[in-house]
Design goal:
Helix 2 packs across helix 7, helix 4 packs across helix 7 and helix 12 packs across helix 23 (about 450-455). This protein has helices at about 5-20, 30-40, 45-50, 65-75, 80-85, 95-100, 105-125, 130-140, 145-160, 190-195, 215-220, 225-235, 250-255, 260-275, 285-295, 305-315, 315-325, 355, 365-370, 395, 400-415, 425-440, 450-455; strands at about 160, 170, 200, 210, 240, 280-285, 315, 345-350, 375-380, 420-425, 445. The chain is built from 23 helices and 11 strands. Strand 1 and strand 2 (about 170) form a beta hairpin. The termini are far apart. Helices cover about 45% and strands about 10% of the residues. It is of the alpha/beta class.
Length: about 475
């Protein structure tokens, strides 16, 4: 017969177990546990706070900074949920991990929180994302940009006007609060995948066969850059193919915590690109390249072997030209080689996207390639690697914070006196263009492949305009 004390102890144990059976205390996977151990390296020194663009933005927000996220997660499982709710204010710029003396991967912890929040809300039958975030995830994951492009390209000229940067601005302020007057990307008359529905013969019979991962913005909006990418690649390959059935890389879903959608897209892209038999997959989008190379391999078995195959073969265009092939530089005028007229000088400054410079470690390659562009004179800004605040959907969901982060970037650009800004990320291109327009100092913001393509055609650096839908 159980004593009263024993019964009380049993009741206490059962209550304890009931607490830890609570669905909110989702069990950590082996990779989660490894991440938690890494978070324990946090020294609480605060170095990360000095480099966090959100903390330093002087904008109103509840984000306590990377250190608070790391320390709250590394203490106990229940305290995991004390950090939930503020992780959406992180731009995932990776600056905290770069500066951290303990190499604490706080940005990975942020993604883990978002994923577990998403999973828990789904289990409880709640919508895990806000309306704007849900719209954006579905918009890209379900390829709705292609549907919007069919009508938008024809009608956008009625409501929007082109700007010097190649983006579009509403002719009248829209009733969207702080977003009502910001720039939007142009919608192309047809996506890049339709323009290059057949393989393109390259100029190097001994070169590699290259497949293009267009990325959503370059596929449906900045198709000028997409065409430049194909043009530059064909000079260094035996054949270039742009698979028509490729889908979004999954970045909007991944950074929102929707791992199931991300895995689905990764599996689809893996199948599509493996079927091309290509030697390399090349992209001109920093974020796409980062997701394909660093995130696809760790998504788990649901993303299939094709995603791992794709990750191994993916190269950012700067890396491909600088490391995988022998660069064929554009012809120069009398001061160099070739029979082109001596070009005029164009002062260029470079913005290094976070997912390119910190994520993939690509920065010097950009400068080397820019040096091959006739007439381009590089003038570095004070901090070319500082986050611009774009961060994909972050600049839409938290526009006031993103604009505050961007102020220093716009001032740095102005201080260089450059007439042209080069960046390897279409999202950064859009956000910086918007900042320059708002400041009344609009100027072209381009990808380096645009300058290379124009130079191959014999034009001066940065002479081209925006997408094909601006007319």
């Amino acid at each position: 017969m159980k004593t009263a004390k024993a019964l009380k102890r049993r009741d206490g144990v059962e209550r304890f177990l009931d607490v830890y059976r609570d669905a909110r205390l989702l069990p950590y996977s082996p990779s989660d546990s490894e991440l938690m151990r890494a978070l324990e390296r946090c020294l609480g020194c605060g170095t990360c706070l000095a480099v966090c663009p959100v903390v330093g933005s002087a904008a109103s927000h509840p984000y306590p900074g990377p250190r608070a996220v790391a320390t709250s997660l590394s203490r106990s499982v229940p305290e995991f949920w004390t950090a939930a709710g503020v992780e959406g204010y992180c731009t995932t710029c990776l600056a905290c991990q770069e500066a951290c003396p303990g190499d604490v991967p706080v940005w990975r912890a942020v993604l883990m929180i978002r994923a577990k929040n998403f999973e828990q809300a789904t289990r409880e039958g709640r919508e895990p994302l806000g309306r704007l975030k849900r719209f954006l995830v579905d918009f890209f994951a379900e390829n709705r940009l292609a549907q919007a492009g069919r009508w938008g390209a024809a009608l956008q000229g009625l409501a929007f006007r082109p700007t010097a940067s190649g983006s579009m601005k509403a002719r009248l302020t829209l009733p969207l609060g702080p977003l009502g007057n910001r720039l939007v990307p142009p919608l192309a008359r047809r996506p890049l995948t339709e323009e290059f529905s057949a393989p393109v013969a390259g100029a190097d019979p001994d070169g590699p066969r290259v497949a293009v991962f267009a990325g959503c913005l370059d596929n449906f909006c900045y198709t000028d850059t997409g065409r430049s990418l194909v043009e530059v690649l064909r000079r260094h390959a035996r054949e270039v193919v742009v698979p028509a059935t490729q889908v979004c890389c999954g970045a909007p879903a991944l950074y929102s915590g929707d791992l199931e959608t991300t895995r689905r897209l990764a599996a689809l892209n893996g199948e599509v690109f493996a079927a091309t038999g290509c030697d390399f997959v090349v992209t001109a989008c920093a974020t796409c390249g980062d997701v394909l190379t660093r995130d696809y391999p760790v998504l788990g078995p649901d993303s299939a072997a094709g995603a791992t195959w794709l990750a191994r073969r993916t190269r950012d265009i700067h890396v491909f030209l600088a490391s995988e092939v022998e660069l064929r530089p554009p012809a120069r005028g009398p001061a160099g080689r070739g029979d082109l007229p001596a070009p005029g000088r164009t002062v260029v400054t470079v913005h290094d996207p976070c997912h390119l410079s910190r994520g993939q470690g690509v920065a010097e390659e950009v400068r080397v390639l820019l040096g091959a562009v006739p007439g381009a004179e590089l003038r570095e800004m004070a901090d070319p690697r500082a986050c611009c605040g774009g961060a994909g959907s972050f600049c839409l969901e938290h526009y006031d914070i993103a604009a505050a982060i961007r102020r220093d970037k716009i001032a740095d650009i102005a201080a260089t006196g450059a007439g042209l800004v080069v960046t390897g990320c279409p999202s950064c291109r859009l956000h910086i263009s918007d900042g320059l327009e708002q400041a009344g100092t609009g100027r072209p913001v381009r990808h380096l492949v645009d300058l290379l393509a124009e130079s191959y055609r014999g034009g001066p650096a940065g002479a081209g305009g925006g997408g094909d839908s601006l007319g």
